[in-house]
Amino acid sequence: MKFLVESGGETENAGPTYRNVLAKDAGLLQSPAGLDSCWDLFRASVDKYPSNPMLGRRTVVDGNAGDYTWMTYREAYDVVMKLAASMDKSGVKQGERAGIYGANCPEWIITMEACNALGVCCVPLYDTLGANAVEFITCHAELQIAFAEERKIGELLKTCHATSKYLKSIVSFGGVTNDQKEEAKNHGMSIFSWEEFLIMGGDHHVDLPENKKSDINTIMYTSGTTGDPKGVMISNESLLVNLAGANSVIQSIGEVFDQDDVYMSYLPLAHIFDRMFEELFISHGAKIGFWRGDVKLLVDDIAALKPTVFCAVPRVLDRIYSGLTTKISSGGILKKTLFNVAYKLKLDSMRKGIKHEKASPLFDKLVFSKVKERLGGKIRIILSGGAPLSVAVEEFLRVVTCAHVVQGYGLTETCGGTFVAQPNDFSMLGTVGPPVPHVEVRLESVSEMGYDALSSTPRGEVCIKGSVLFSGYYKRRDLTQEVMIDGWFHTGDVGEWQPNGSLKIIDRKKNIFKLS
Length: 516
Prior knowledge:
Blueprint: E1 4-8, E2 17-20, H1 38-48, E3 53-61, E4 64-72, H2 73-89, E5 97-101, H3 106-118, E6 121-125, H4 133-140, E7 145-148, H5 153-158, H6 160-163, E8 169-172, H7 178-186, E9 190-192, H8 194-200, E10 216-222, E11 230-235, H9 236-252, E12 262-265, H10 272-283, E13 287-290, H11 298-305, E14 309-312, H12 314-329, H13 333-351, H14 356-359, H15 361-374, E15 381-384, H16 391-400, E16 404-411, E17 416-420, E18 440-444, E19 459-465, H17 477-483, E20 484-485, E21 488-497, E22 503-508
Parallel strand pairs: 3-13, 5-6, 5-7, 7-8, 8-9, 12-13, 14-15, 15-16
Antiparallel strand pairs: 1-2, 3-4, 10-11, 16-17, 18-19, 19-21, 20-21, 21-22
């Protein structure tokens, strides 16, 4: 298994422990020296790239979207410090928890960074976890303050009969109405527009606390298979280690992330997949552009932003695949024939091990460049996660996008990406690849389902170990002990080792189908 190295022996119930070959001699990857928190990461980028564009959104006039307008790293930092001063003045202290409710936008990131600055734990509120999730999370996490996009304020106020016991302040990313102010007042709460709250800090001086690696940076609530959402506690160290791992993996395929990269922010920041990538781009002084919030307009936003890296869940890639294949089918017979010939020749070359950029440069220029232009023209990496991507869609995108296309696997409890496939290795099609260089992995037999981790084709529950793991479920030690056994996190997913060292997810221990 050329991508893996054995780092521990098998036991009665479990197969050998493996790690990525990149971690063979130096050991598991650790967090970068000199950085103790995500705040350190942002501050370092502000110092190094003060005038780089950081956060961008499209201006919309009379329903027509224009170009992206940008806030620089220094400008963002100045707003973050104003927000931190207002939060501090309103009584929010280190170790307490602040909620963020709404779609991705520059204010989301600014609020997140203000929480990072103050050592306040950021708790995303995510209503798709169920009708009562916002109310449950607000009370369970004992949120003292909540930030929300303007159109979510009404939803937040509906929960006040239960949440006002904890929640004292609400801040809108936009404006607030007089009726909303009256309703909040009736519950003994304060509500502010974004501009009002920023002014509130005035000249208030904030002594930023020392943030430690072990501090809980965020609590992300995930849908339990039954019962209430579970609060996954993620430390500064977990995020920093995962960022180091992402940089290491990308370097291993001859690429680097840098300040010229551009990221499309549309996957929910309430999920670890997107949160991790936004932190990664911030660490490199790169651009983050936000979508308009409508999946039907996403391809248009992509064309305007021209991202270099695109993260997606299979549902989004399926939509892009359908759009491209429909456009190809509706073309004339000559265009269709040329496309099919180009596709077959490039696919054959890539299956022989030729890298995508060398497999068919002529057809890339004549045929596939048109596909690339529809995605902005600059995409070089497409990463799929969150659910299995079909082999047909993965193969198609690998050929036609002129970009690295890879599938990854991870959970909130493992801080996101734990396995990532190698982009130019066609034997990894349909797999999630080998583990990243900061974790150890083993399979444990699931005898009741007929999966044997010690058979010639090892199959079993995927178990993960490393400093990237979560710090437990908030206020649920019982659930933590169910999944954390002797330092191993039990994912509940059943995997099968492939001969090349990649992993294929083949089942769920409890046979619960996960939607994309």
